[in-house]
């Protein structure tokens, strides 16, 4: 997400910008696996980059989501106190938030909290009206697509394997060839410390921390009005297992927090699933765990070592001339991302005379979300294009036209995941049972793909081993 | 509702699977002329066209047919009776006033229906719903999806396979994938007994030497991009995995056959009361739901073991809907039924007294030489002996009108010896 925000921000200037991504699509790492929350700034030390960029970033969202046509809403948030001691914690959080310039924070009584969130028991709550939710995938994808429309070349399946300082700047070696660049921005998330080491910057070490989530059926959405957070546990930088409505109308439980050894070990575990369920029941006794439709996890790129009490700040600095590192961009990274991008561009501007493009277009094409349009509008859509009348995803009411549009993405990504994150097909309660065969058929008929070419999420995740008849002939 | 032009219609049948087809045929034969079947796939017959194995039709046609053959009999009848149907069309919403909104390539269609038959079928429980921990690679398929891909598209899902769940589709797919050259290493079943029909255990597992591990489940999926292995563990009597029993089985595919859920999202939009156990609508003996003029049948009502029973039930729904539409439905008092000891559910939820009818039920545990009793309070109304009872098999009990003459409520129980 930060990489895509950077790409878009740089696309406003007369520069030749490329975005290098090792995965088969944008938004494959923690960008897609988080709470999707726009934070207000209750948790970060005054004067820190986290505090400043979080507050600034959230304010930038208002315009951005309009320009990029990304669903976003300020649903508000209650941090609930469940013991007398925690009431004091609420005051502390409010004070931090106010010092950071967050407006509208109020501590409300037990009775009022019950009125606002009838299904949650608490002794009182800190209410933050301006906290919001956004679709992290649609936001990231839209940033990348808009950057691409404005001239940024997005290279997917392009893994950086080495960086060398040369006369002209840097030579970046990748699995898809070499690139020479004047300026390198290292926004590699979990791999940012390794990328920095490639140019001899060895002082960083990241500690991957996995957060697991459970996704609940849309049936459960109305159990809460806005977000419900506990008072953060005394673990550096951790906000605790909370309940978040998603912009699509599901409910998320999570995340857990656990340091792991292997960088992209995004498995879910029985222990954490049990922990999530227990905590969720504690916050929201009416929650039915029968409503769980999926579990996933994401990995935070933490710069704070496991034993440290206080969370370290984001590191965004030019550690080497023209080499800018972004290290430890965990929460509130999503909220801060637009402000981070601006901050980095500012760092570049201080040294170089870069000119704004005259023809930058901030607006990305409008995406039709059939399910979210009125019946009248749906009717005219189908009349214009019969592909809007054919449902590919029965749970989320995603039409064939939307699936085709997703597959026609500017990056040429034709995976099942590319369709899922762009349209929601496969994210509903049947989780692909109905739509998978239909999408497979579209890939075959409309794009001429063979069975063995179809993949779930990247080139290494084939869906099939081939056609039955061919396999029989081969005697496999 | 919206401002789109709506058309009045006597009957909308939601779903063109075995239930929808049989219901529509029956309704037409009983005199309903103005009706429409709405099917979201681009074929009629629902799941049947992908069920290329045989064993269908024994009860109704007294012969064993494949799924496509069974479906074709009904499709031919629909065509012969000139019953209108639309495919690639999905009901998006039904209001309590019985306005039905349908998306179709021909346009967004709105109907104001006198009556509706809910025949949406069921969907498969997924990996997420049973919360199998682990990674999220390609190669995890529900059995029905794998069946669709292999049988209808001829796309082979994998070659080294573990099946979780001994439900019928899982068993059938074990055999099917074996035919296609795959090796099914094991079928794991969390319960201490198989979930599928005994004939399928014999014909799909035993005949092909595929081991069945009872009281076992998959406790982890491994592999970042494609399935590389699953961990199978033994479970205790509370279905909790037993530490130390884990075995890692290398495979590229996990097939899940872990239960079916009646599809009732539309029932919710029109305010139909749902039975918490079956997941389907609460119905009377004429298969009418809590909303007047809306009827339910087939797997959308409760999951059936044999398609013939789906067709028979749907036929009854078609008959009842005709009575309703033609103004022949009489107002009657009904009594409630209840599942007692050893019975998971009993349908219909409400019945008329003094008429012959059938109760449908599923038991909690398997048993041999068991009596099932129908009680009115403490009074035994009827008792029937079953040589074998099994949760996988639907049990039917006929009640004569005379047997329900003075009862106040009915409770069905498996009797202790």
How would you characterize this protein structure?
The complex is a heterodimer of chains A (476) and B (417). Chain A has 476 residues and is an alpha+beta fold. Chain A is built from 13 helices and 23 strands. Among the domains of chain A are: 1-74 and 132-200 and 322-367, FAD/NAD(P)-binding domain, CATH 3.50.50; 370-474, no CATH class. The two termini of chain A are 43 Å apart. The model of chain A has no long low-confidence stretch (mean pLDDT 96). In chain B, α1 (18-29) packs parallel to α8 (307-325) and α4 (143-152) packs parallel to α5 (168-179). The mean pLDDT of chain B is 96. In chain B, the strands form seven sheets. In chain B, strands 1, 2, 5, 6, 7, 8 and 20 form a seven-stranded mixed β-sheet that branches. A five-stranded parallel β-sheet of chain B has the order 10-18-12-13-14. Classes of the chains: A alpha+beta (476), B alpha/beta (417). β23 of chain A pairs antiparallel with β11 of chain B.
Reconstruct the topology from this structure:
The complex is a heterodimer of chains A (476) and B (417).
Chain A (H helix, E strand, L loop, with lengths): L1 H9 L7 E3 L16 E2 L10 H20 L3 E2 L3 E5 L2 H16 L6 E4 H7 L7 E5 L3 E3 L1 H14 L3 E3 L4 E7 L2 E6 L2 E5 L2 E3 L5 H6 L9 E10 L10 E4 L11 E4 L5 E4 L3 E2 L10 H14 L8 E11 L12 E6 L2 E5 L5 H19 L23 H10 L6 E3 L4 E2 H8 L8 H8 L11 H13 L18 E2 H7 L2
Parallel strand pairs in A: 1-8, 4-14, 12-20
Antiparallel strand pairs in A: 2-7, 3-7, 4-6, 5-6, 9-10, 10-11, 13-16, 13-17, 13-18, 15-16, 19-20, 21-22
Chain B lengths: L6 E8 L3 H12 L5 E4 L15 E3 L8 E2 H14 L4 E2 L3 E5 L4 E6 L2 E12 L3 E3 L2 H4 L9 E3 H10 L2 E2 L3 E5 L3 H12 L3 E7 L8 H8 L6 E3 L1 E7 L6 E6 L12 E4 L2 E4 L3 E3 L2 H5 L24 E3 L10 H19 L8 E6 L3 E5 L2 E3 L4 E7 L3 E10 L2 E11 L5 E5 L10 E5 L3
Parallel strand pairs in B: 1-2, 1-8, 2-5, 8-20, 10-18, 12-13, 12-18, 13-14, 21-28
Antiparallel strand pairs in B: 3-4, 6-7, 7-8, 9-19, 15-16, 16-17, 21-23, 22-24, 24-27, 25-26, 25-28
